[in-house]
């Protein structure tokens, strides 16, 4: 995974995690381009779209777009499922997650993401294991 973006319909980035080094200006350009790519696509098309020399896999939940940029040779369906798993974990952790949860508890969202994806690779795919780990971290606070 090269980066993960959570953006609303207006293009505001609510979470951005880059696993490749990019300049700040390039990050803003990438976020703008990815948003333009996914927000204007017809819902009857696939959730995979070519982006530069890579592939963006995205999924829309309510008003948020969850986008992953991966290599062209990676398995799209595996990443589509991982987006869904990430949303399920957020939903469980925040009891019916919404955009405001992501904004006001961004540090917890990044913590969940770090339990799930490490250095651009899927680290843990067990929903139960991630939720248990987050429970342990909550007790420490």
Throw out a few tags for this protein:
single chain, 141 residues, alpha+beta, Beta-Lactamase, 5-stranded antiparallel beta sheet, 5 helices, clathrin adaptor activity, cell membrane, endocytosis
Care to give the gist of this entry?
It holds the Pfam family Clat_adaptor_s. This protein has 141 residues and is α+β, with helices and mostly antiparallel strands.
Describe the structure.
Its main location: membrane. This is AP complex subunit sigma. One of its GO terms (molecular function) is clathrin adaptor activity. It is a single chain. The protein is an alpha+beta fold and 141 residues long. The model has no long low-confidence stretch (mean pLDDT 93). The chain has helices at residues 24-39, 76-94, 99-104, 106-116, 127-140, and strands at 3-8, 13-18, 48-51, 54-61, 64-70, 117-118, 121-122. The longest helix is centred in the middle third of the chain and has 19 residues, at 76-94.
